[in-house]
Amino acid sequence: MSLTTSHAEAASDVYLEQVEPIYREMVDDLRELGYPAGTKARLRKLYAAMERAMDRAVGKIEADPQVAVVGPGTFGSVNDRLDAVGLGRCGSG
Question: What is the dihedral of CA 81, 87, 92, 93, to 10 degrees?
Answer without folding.
Answer: -170
